[in-house]
Amino acid sequence: MGKQGVGKEFILNLFLLKHKEVMEQLLGMSLGQIELEKPFGRNKLDFSAVSEKKIEVIMENQISSSDDSHLRTVINIIDSIQEGVVIWGATSFHPNHVMAVKQKLQQYPSKYIDFYCVQISHDVVEKLTILDQMYPLEVWDHLYLIKKVKNDLLQIIDKRQQVPPSHFGRVYAGEKVYDMDRIEDIKEMMLHNLRDKLSFFPNIHKGKKHSAHHLMLRIGAGMDGVSYQCSVRNQKNMAMIALQMDDHRLNLYDQFRELDDIREKVHPNVIFEKRKIAVYFTPSLNTEETVNELADLLKRFINYFSPFIYNRLPI
Fold it and tell me: How much is the pTM?
């Protein structure tokens, strides 16, 4: 199957999520509502948060020198928002790239946007390389290695500020209140709770674009064409956890069917159906109780299947 790593850029984002004080000290502001890979039009934002002044903070990271591709991404973000803090993280910056961003901001003098060029320390990159070679389920608990870097982890090397010091934005900065009559809110609540309970699983932290048409939540399992599915209620009014394989992963599905300890280590009611390994159960009247049961089952699935998916164990 080949090695399936987390990826150095995403590991950096995980670190900034877990240790938000690094960004808070860098920017001199408190941050909340942190999300990774948040849907943004047809793209995703590497890192997003909301400051105490209700202004969105967006960071685009690359573990390399600045390039034209990431420049286009930063420009697109600036074109698409009216206010915010936009941060471009890289190991070094070409002067022309920095100038291009500043010139773009000059075209929008009425937009309240602050821009920061943030240099990522090469010592941090070395730690990211070590972490990316680890078993993905061990990365979260070893993110502290990055904090062992003695020099500045991140350093602002250039900036342009257009947000007045007294300005407060319009982004809601309070605690999320979920409407259990809305499908999107139920799935968002599910994902929030799963992240709290399964923070060790990197893909649980990736943002999702929630459909309003079904209660199915999909989470990448760590390999193309393989995903976990979670639902508090399907069309037959059953809660479900499943490992789903696409057509081109049929061989993997057949191999999993041959394992003789799945029902012992995952759940006695595991069933195999249409490239899916699933457990169904009757949901509680209390949605949060159902989510807690789903989290427990998903943890068992992740711990059992990940060594095979990440090529730690032969099938």
Answer: 0.93
